[in-house]
Amino acid sequence: MEKHRVLPDVTVMSDHAEIPGIGFLPVNTFVIHAEQPVVVDTGLSTPDKDFVAELAEVIDPADVRWVWITHPDRDHTGGLWQLLEAAPQAKLVTTFLGVGIMSCEWAVPLDRVHLLNPGQRLDVGDRTLTGYRPPLFDNPATVGLQDDKTGALLSSDCFGGPMGSPQQAMCADVREVSAEDRRAAQLLWAAIDSPWVLGVDRPTYAATVDSFRRLDPSAILSTHLPPAIGLNGPMFDALDEAPSAPSWVGPDQEALEALLASFEPVG
Ligand SMILES: [Fe+2]
Ligand SMILES: [Fe+2]
């Protein structure tokens, strides 16, 4: 993972996942260096990952007090249980539904859980974090947040977009990608990850985006896009455009068989 201190007290830890035919999806986690340190999301769940070891390059994992899982998809929960072991004081911030989803796979220790719904605040000593459901999401347990001290908006899957290379996916500033490529990537991701947006009532959706625009974040930190600082106008404009994104359909069985036939026989 690449580590970028993008704000004086926010570190982004950047990983990526290659999606065939689509690109390189950033997979970010965040450390808010608050009086009570907060980790937001815990990365990919594949066996080659050691999230706690990566985190130790940024902060002593034992000091972590809050582990905020924006939603329990497996690209957000990779290091969760190892981190809760390494951070005995830490509480898992999620929703009732988030606990339910995680309970399908794990014995969630309820005495370690802190339930927080959109609109509620978490006091982390020197600041509060306010929970929000972002305009685009792929899981009903989703709660992003705004840090009231830095103004940073941590938006979960919302604002994401696949990049053209691993280097772009893990870079410190989305401005390394052209504005047109970023916009196209965001519209593609909206259609892939939140396909329901293509059928929304547009005035209602526009009002939701508007209410987020008024948060006037100092930085937009998506799990699936390099950090975006000073780009609120175009970032929210891309979100506004999402209902008009071209619809996306994944490869079908015929395409899979063509792909498999193109591989060299083994042995
Ligand atoms: Fe997701
Ligand atoms: Fe995700």
Automatic annotation (TrEMBL):
Signal peptide: none annotated. It comes from the Bacteria. InterPro entries: Metallo-B-lactamas (IPR001279), RibonucZ/Hydroxyglut_hydro (IPR036866). It holds the Pfam family Lactamase_B. SMART domains: Lactamase_B. Residues 26-192 form the Metallo-beta-lactamase domain. This is Metallo-beta-lactamase domain-containing protein. It comes from Nocardioides thalensis.
